[in-house]
Amino acid sequence: MRGSHVVRLFTANGCQSETIPNSVETGPWLVLFREDSLFYYRNEPLRVTSPRTDDGAGGRAADRDSGGSSAAISESLSISESEINQLLDVTPDDVGAASELSFARNVFVPLTTACRYTCTYCTYYDPPGQASLMSPDEIRESVRMGADAGCTEALFTFGDDPDERYAQIHEQLAEWGHESIHSYLREACEIALDEGLLPHSNPGDQTRAQMEQVADVNASMGVMLETTADVQAHGGPRAKSPEQRLNTIRVAGELGVPFTTGILVGIGETWRDRAVSLLAIARLHERHGHIQEVLVQNVVPNERWREDPVPVETTRRAVAMARAALPETVSVQVPPNLSPVRELLDCGVDDLGGVSPVTDDYINPDYAWPALAELRDIADVAGVPLTERLPVYERYVGENWLSPRIDDAIHADNEAGRRYQSVLNN
Ligand code: SF4
């Protein structure tokens, strides 16, 4: 089939994805058409992942192996065939509804919309020249508003490390005395703590050095795994890699950072990829105990993603698989502004994520957060209590998971400390 093919390039520095446009895979060859010429690349040492032919929106994506990263990852994490097949057999009938639903009250702080990647379903990132960077004053104003409204969490969102194309962002950071976005994130987290909110940062992929730079000023952190597969939705000249995201999750475990991750459903992955993704998260949690919650998020149509919505039956099965793959202590979260949560309640959902009484959901601005009253209504439909939580789950508080800076903030005898403690004691 002629089209774009994502190839894995194995080099001395590891492996990376690259999209070869206008090409066709035939036998051991990847044939590239360029103007009047044909180029033949021997399909070694390239490992070619086939163009996706399953339903990107999720419907009846095949249970087959997609090859590429999912296969390599299941091997490296010792995920067995029987585990995968067992999880593929799970249906909503095999899991139970949760006995309560939790949520966190947050303020959304889109620190920068610069991103080195160009995922085709994402409306969050802005190209170089258009990307924003919040100033310290804007951050302070935003988090102060959140604290005044009774929030407990400052949710710092990013693209992924702005690369050299974002000259303006780097110049602005330098003007403010920062050599990197992580150095600036540290200052942003300090502002949030000063104003009475607990930071939860999602800066995309992170190296160990980057995470170490900010771990002690975060109550928890996160990155969406999305999928272990190489999908064309991550393609383009700068494709993010599942190995890097898994490495970020592993580094968080090694550094003892309570962590949030999740899968994105409907970006071209197969059912088998979904199973491997969930089992990979479960395996890293087995090793480190640091995964506090796993989102199951269906991709939604927007100005950059014109595919059909993910069928609700697909999301139901994916949520049930997450519940079955993870220990009971790890929450399964569904974002109520993006998913038909009332139709998922019997599939094991026990958390509704962060809801903001004061800011929009900047990652999905077309989909407004429901009011807290809406969450209560969802809990009423489920017939369970709705409980507020902190951005760090209670089981990590007082168990040597938190840095002294965060532990002191939570137990401080001041207005913010009393707000955190009242949430812990509710
Ligand atoms: S999904 Fe994340 S990594 Fe991909 S373009 Fe958007 S902000 Fe960047």
Overview of the molecule:
This protein has 426 residues and is of the alpha/beta class. Among the domains are: 1-51, no CATH class; 94-106 and 218-424, Alpha-Beta Barrel (TIM Barrel), CATH 3.20.20. The protein contains twelve helices and 14 strands. It has helices at 68-76, 81-88, 136-148, 167-175, 181-195, 208-214, 242-255, 271-288, 312-325, 372-382, 404-411, 415-424; strands at 3-11, 14-26, 29-34, 37-42, 47-49, 101-110, 153-157, 198-202, 220-222, 259-265, 291-298, 331-333, 351-355, 386-389. Strands 6, 7, 8, 9, 10, 11, 12, 13 and 14 form a nine-stranded parallel sheet that branches. A five-stranded antiparallel sheet has the order 4-3-2-1-5, with no helix packed on it. The longest helix has 18 residues, at 271-288. Residues 115, 117-119, 122, 124-125, 159-160, 204, 240 line the site of iron/sulfur cluster.
